[in-house]
Write a structure and sequence with these properties.
By secondary structure, the protein is of the alpha/beta class. The chain has one domain (16-199, 234-260): 3-Layer(aba) Sandwich (Rossmann fold), CATH 3.40.50.720. Helix content is 44%, strand content 14%. The protein has helices at 30-41, 53-65, 82-94, 117-145, 167-187, 208-215, 217-227, 236-247; strands spanning 21-25, 45-50, 69-74, 99-102, 148-153, 192-199, 258-261. It has a seven-stranded parallel beta sheet with strand order 3-2-1-4-5-6-7, with helices on both faces. The longest helix has 29 residues, at 117-145. The relative contact order is 0.15. Bound molecules: NADP nicotinamide-adenine-dinucleotide phosphate (NAP). NADP nicotinamide-adenine-dinucleotide phosphate binds next to helix 1 and strand 2.
Length: 270
């Protein structure tokens, strides 16, 4: 069986995203940048946010050169007013918000007994609260439009135990899936869908798995053989494709779901 990823541009399915407006928290590099690129290819206008101004400018420039209608702002999503800032920026730039992607996130590994209140506050702020604040800020515009799609990027380790050292990451990613499910129930009657994706180990140039593969190729080969049934790391394009589908009306019956994008890596039954 071939385990090579298919080329995204060979897939022909009209997602009906032309003219829609998407806002992406953490859209300047990594998976978020690929999501921005996929949404631009589908004809969305995109507002993207990240902390590093140069990274935001470079992403906006590249995507604009590729024909996209793209704007970006340097915003730290962990700030209490970041949700409002992101919503205001997208509305000022594009006049509406059809899609919100909560992708910003990070990890902090350490044994539970060594974790501090500061660690918990930081990780919960980045991986959970920032997305809840952003959702609260974009929902009024989606309500006025009577439609909207929110997609959060969680992790397979939000659905099952990631292992020792991952209490901060695991807890924050699980809580995001849990909150999104309740949001989906509350907003279903208003035409707003809320879903998550749960990526497994995703390799892209400059990312953490890429770095580990370059530093310890044999260990990483063994990791893949032991953990990923499809026999390779996922690509950021493959995560972006699933996010883009969930964001679109082609996923009109999907809400309150969390889709694994992991080559079979997750062992969770639910
Ligand atoms: N890579 C994987 O294998 C994998 C697996 C499972 C889940 N995930 C999840 O997928 C998401 C993206 O991961 P990634 O590997 O693509 O990460 P990444 O390469 O580190 O990119 C993260 C993006 O979020 C932005 N960001 C980070 N902190 C931010 C903050 N406080 N405010 C605003 N923007 C912020 C970054 O830009 P700035 O640094 O400039 O702010 C960047 O645009 C994360 O939620 C991660 O947990 C990744």
């Amino acid at each position: 069986m071939s385990t090579t990823p298919p080329k995204a541009d060979t897939i022909d399915m009209d997602l009906g995203l032309k003219g829609k407006v998407a806002a992406i928290a953490g859209g300047s590099r990594g998976i978020g940048r690929y999501i921005a690129s996929a949404l631009v290819r589908e004809g969305c206008s995109v507002a993207l946010y990240a902390r590093d101004k140069g990274g935001v400018e470079s992403a906006v420039e590249t995507l604009t050169q590729a024909g996209g209608n793209v704007a970006g702002a340097s915003i730290d999503v962990t700030r209490e007013d970041a949700g409002e800032q992101m919503a205001r920026f997208a509305l000022e730039e594009f006049g509406r918000i059809d899609i919100f992607i909560g992708n910003a996130g990070g990890n902090r590994r350490k044994p539970f007994v060594d974790t501090t209140d500061e660690d918990w506050t930081d990780l919960l702020n980045l991986n959970l609260l920032s997305h809840l604040r952003a959702a609260r800020a974009v929902i009024p515009a989606m309500r006025d439009q009577e439609s909207g799609s929110i997609v959060f990027v969680s992790s397979i380790f939000g659905r099952e135990a990631g292992g020792p050292g991952l209490s901060l990451y695991n807890t924050s990613k699980t809580a995001l899936i849990s909150a999104s499910k309740i949001m989906a129930l509350e907003l279903a009657g208003e035409g707003i869908r809320v879903n998550c994706v749960a990526p497994g180990s995703i390799r892209f140039p400059g990312g953490s798995w890429d770095r580990r593969c370059n530093e310890q190729p044999e260990a990483m080969e063994k990791f893949v053989a032991d953990n990923i049934p499809l026999g390779r790391f996922g690509t950021a394009e493959e995560v972006a494709d699933v996010v883009t589908f969930l964001a679109s009306d082609r996923a009109s019956l999907v809400t309150g779901a969390c889709l694994n994008v992991d080559g079979g890596q997750s062992k969770s039954l639910i």
